[in-house]
Amino acid sequence: MGALRLFTGIMGRISTFRSYQIVLLLAAALAVVAFYYFGSERQNFSSTTKRIKQTQASHNANRNDADLSLDTRLLHAEEKAGAAGEGEEGRARRTHSQPEEMQRYHALMMFTKVDKNRGLQAKFQVAMRSMAKHGRFLEEEVLVLHFVSDEASQELGKQLLPELLLDASFKYEVAFHNVAALTERLFPIVEAMQKHFSAGSGAYYSDSIFFLSVAMHRIMPADMKHIVQLDLDLKYRCNIRDLFQEFNQFQPEAVIGIAREMQPVYRHTFWQYRKENPKSVVGDPPPDGQPGFNSGVMLLDLEAMRASALYNRLLEPERVARLAEQYHFHGHLGDQDFFTMIGMEHPRLFHPLACGWNRQLCTWWRDHGYGDVFQLYYRCPGPVYIYHGNCNTPIPDD
Fold first, then answer.
1. pLDDT at 1 over 60
2. N or C: lower Cβ tally within 10 Å for the chain?
3. DSSP labels, 174-222
């Protein structure tokens, strides 16, 4: 009887509803039925939404994979049209934009006159293939490859790079910098030192561009903190990312990471200074001597270079001339000579790389008057991370 009274009461209330209210009640009831009907088929709202999102994510992933394979991952970032010599030289225009939070590792190589030199082309192929083979970076990291190049070599580089980096497991970008524009900007900075560290007018290292590393902190964008400069005649036997970790080992005053010279070239170059200062270790072999530096592999802490008052004073023409006179120095190897000379006076500006990071193979001086002391300079205990086939020396196979 209680139930009957309750039902009668409810029906009485319903009878007072207006027709549009009854329609709303019926619609709500149908929605409940539909929900449980689809739920019995395991297609409720949550699972359906998840399935749609998964389908879309799969589509996007496939599309992204296709984009990354196109032109071999982020390939051929080029200078903006008309940017040569203006503003931030060689800022890359990427084919596929990347989030700003991506961490970029910058590496620079000279890439001039490669189109006319098959030997350089072969060295370039060895370097890029070995870099791709051993390189490993995190998902949120990008290796930016900078090439200082003339127009013809740039076109050749664009043709070769897709195949050479085809097997790279890491993201990368490529930026070409116009050599003529860079030289024009460099000349006022390095003009004074060229006469001290160049072989003469028209010689290979007489061009200002071969002093780029000396003034890199004034050429590259202010927000670029680190860059490594690498010769083309290298063969990588380890992950190049590990080389960048050497920046973390710099002492407070260090601005450049560089390996020692592995031939007695500076024993020869400083002969007069050594004669006048017989107790000096200038030009002597390691571990107690100062054999000079080799610029085949260099880590440039651009932020530290900009901040170092001492380093920037050493770029002043009168300082360069004074040191060159003090050491009776006249070289022919460009930036390497400059770094060697100031390193004799200010070694704390440099972070010494282990010889394995720049395992030079050239033996020229062994056969030109220094065979008795050659091995004191040439030996390199420990693992080899990068081979340097300088003076056209063949690089061992792995």
1. no
2. N
3. EEEEEHHHHHHHHHHHHHHHHHHHSSSTTSGGGSGGGGGGGGHHHHS-T
Q: Say yes or no to pLDDT of 47 above 90.
A: no
Nearest CA among 209, 203, 143 for reference residue 170 = 143
Which value, in Å, is the radius of gyration of the alpha carbons in the chain?
32
Q: Helix (H, G, I), strand (E, B), or coil: what is residue 252? A: coil
| Spatial CA neighbour of 107 closest among 141, 82, 84 | 141
What is residue 282's three-state secondary structure? strand
The count of other CB atoms within 10 Å of the CB of residue 78 is 17
Q: Quote the pLDDT of residue 274.
A: 98
CA dist 26 and 8 (Å) reads 19
* H/E element, 108: strand 103-111
Phi-psi region of 369 (alpha: psi -120 to 50; beta: other; left: phi over 0): left
Q: Is 56 exposed, middle or buried (0-12, 13-18, 19+ CB in 10 A)?
A: exposed
Q: What tens digit of pLDDT does each residue of 115-134 get?
A: 999 999 999 999 999 999 99
Reference 213, options 200, 235, 199, 228; nearest CA is 228
